[in-house]
Write a structure and sequence with these properties.
Helix content is 85%, strand content 0%. By secondary structure, it is an all-alpha fold. The longest helix has 11 residues, at 2-12. It is elongated.
């Protein structure tokens, strides 16, 4: 379930997630 949530967030703003 954690992977699915991360995939959704990454698709919306992968650059922001990677920056954090």
């Amino acid at each position: 379930m954690k992977t699915k949530k991360f995939c959704l967030t990454e698709a919306q703003m992968p650059t922001q997630w990677y920056n954090i």
